[in-house]
Specification:
Elements: E1 3-7, H1 15-22, E2 28-32, H2 35-42, E3 48-51, H3 58-64, E4 69-72, H4 80-90, E5 95-99, H5 106-118, E6 124-129, E7 132-144, E8 150-154, E9 161-165, E10 172-175, E11 183-187, E12 192-207, H6 208-213
Parallel strand pairs: 1-2, 1-5, 2-3, 3-4, 5-6
Antiparallel strand pairs: 6-7, 7-12, 8-11, 8-12, 9-10, 9-12
């Protein structure tokens, strides 16, 4: 399995979050254009810097020119994050963590959440924003959890249905269409959360620090 981190130009997470995933197999760091500025502040050396390079500081690019592979893609049909994802897919990465993809620009945040769905069938994507860990799921899933953990679930349309076992507020073939119904701050009732998701994709959002503390990440 090949795993990578894509660091974009939004609000970056704490450095220890990035290094935690690097220590767990996500050993390639790809910066989406201005994400290189954040990498520089963290003292990290990207393996790749990809994008149209209009946001990365010139001094930062010069610093990394002999240390990182810089790929200038001027194509404007894709965002810089999409360019990085297409690079990862082409180079047969199986898993990617998106960081720095949220921040002051709500339109960028909304776009990058949509990208998780857009690339769902091409690469296994997870996303960190602040202390929240987001992952998309379909089909039958069993998640390692603990009694009392806060778990939030979100759907997008009426056709996608969810059956849950292990939640305080169970989902019984329930749809969670965006803008109509959601399962925010549900609570796990055991050490295992079982989900059956039919006809679509849902987001599950959990707290990174809690997952790290209780060893809930399931690194393949």
């Amino acid at each position: 399995m090949k795993k990578c981190i894509i660091l974009a130009n939004g609000k970056p997470p704490k450095k220890n979050i990035i290094t935690f995933f690097q220590k767990n197999g996500y050993d390639t760091l790809i910066c989406a254009d201005g994400g290189a500025n954040s990498a520089n502040k963290f003292g990290l050396i990207p393996d790749y810097i990809i994008g149209d390079l209009d946001s990365a500081d010139k001094n930062v690019l010069n610093k990394y020119r002999t240390k990182s592979k810089i790929v200038n893609i001027k194509r404007q049909n894709d965002t810089d994050v999409e360019k990085c994802l297409k690079f990862a897919v082409k180079n047969k990465y199986t898993d990617v963590l998106l960081v720095g993809v949220t921040g002051n620009r709500l339109d960028h945040t909304y776009c990058n959440l949509g990208i998780v769905i857009k690339f769902f069938h091409q690469i296994n994507i997870s996303l960190i924003a602040e202390n929240s860990y987001l992952k998309a799921y379909k089909g039958k899933q069993e998640l390692k959890t603990f009694k009392g953990e806060t778990v939030s679930l979100y759907g997008f349309d009426k056709k996608t249905r969810i059956i849950s076992r292990g939640l305080k507020y169970p989902l019984k073939n329930t749809a969670l269409p965006f803008g109509e119904k959601e399962s925010t701050s549900n609570i796990a009732t055991s050490n295992s959360l079982q989900l059956t998701i039919s006809n679509g994709i849902i987001f599950v959002i959990r707290d990174f620090n809690t997952m790290k503390k209780y060893d809930l990440f399931q690194f393949g």
